[in-house]
C-alpha cells in the first residue's frame, strides 16, 4: 500500500474561477523521498494543504498512511509533520520555547524524541534563548524542521523548505533530509529549484495545477524524445533572436551562458544551423550535443502542455 495517495484531486479557489489543482493522481511509497517540482503558482501548496488535512478538495480522494484526508483528519494530524512554505513558528518565542510548545501540543517532550532531531537541533542549540524572529533564514529553517519532527511523524511534508535560503544551507538541508529518510520517514518536499529535483528518489513535475510527469529524475531525463544541443556565440542575445527565426529550429531558450535548442525535423542537422548562423554574421560559434537535464525536460513538457506560458526561472 502506498503511504500517500492522490486520486483525481481537483481544487478551485474564488468560487471556481481559479483552478489550482487539476485532476491530480499520484502515489508515494513508504520511506520514499518524493519531490513536487514546479514554479510559483503550480499548485504545490494546495496539494500539501489537502494532504495535511488543512484544505478540502473539490473532487477526488486523498489518503495518508491509509487514512482518508477528509474523514480521518485526526489520525493523519497525529502522524504527520508539516513545515509550511511561510515561516509559521512563533516569532516572539525563543528557539527552546517554540520546540517545547510544539512537543507539548503532541503530548511529547524534547527529550522523548531527541534522537530524531539531535543532529539538526545541535546546530541551533547555541541560540536556544534567541527569539525565532531574530534567527537567520537557515536557522529558522532548521528550527521549523525540528518543530515538524518533534512528535516523531511517520510522514513529513516540507513545502518549499529551501526557498530564499543560501546555497550552503540548502545543501545542508538536503543532507538532513537524507538522514531522516534513513530513519524510515516518508518525505514529500516541494521546490521550485530544478537542481534539487535530482536529490529526490522520485519526482512529480507540476505546472498550472497539472502533473506533467512522475518518475525518477533519471527516468524523466531519459524520456527526452529528441537530441538536445547547446550553442554559444559572442552575442547570445542576437543568436537567440536569430535561432528563433530559423525554420529548422523547433525550440530554443537561454540556459546559463548558452542556448539550448532542439531541431524541427530529422533531416535538419546542426551543421546546417551552424552554416546559417555563420552566414548571418554570428561569430565564435560553438555547439555540441548535450544530455538533457530536468529543467530541459520540464520546459519541453510545459511547452507541450501549455505553449503560451513561458517558464519563469526563480
Ligand atoms: N486562497 C486562495 N485564493 C485564491 N487563489 C489561490 C489561493 N491560494 C492559491 N491560489 C491560487 O492557486 C494557484 C495554485 O497556488 P499554490 O499556492 O497551490 O501554488 P504553489 O505551487 O504552492 O505556488 P507558490 O509557491 O507561489 O505558493 C495559484 O494560481 C494561486 O494564485
UniProtKB/TrEMBL annotation:
Pfam families: ABC_tran (PF00005). InterPro entries: AAA+_ATPase, ABC_transporter-like_ATP-bd, ABC_transporter-like_CS, ABC_transporter_ATP-binding, P-loop_NTPase. Signal peptide: none annotated. Residues 4-233 form the ABC transporter domain. Gene3D superfamilies: P-loop containing nucleotide triphosphate hydrolases. One of its GO terms (molecular function) is ATP hydrolysis activity. It comes from the Bacteria. SMART domains: AAA (SM00382). Keywords: ATP-binding, Nodulation, Nucleotide-binding, Transport. Belongs to the ABC transporter superfamily. This is ABC transporter ATP-binding protein. It comes from Chitinophaga eiseniae.
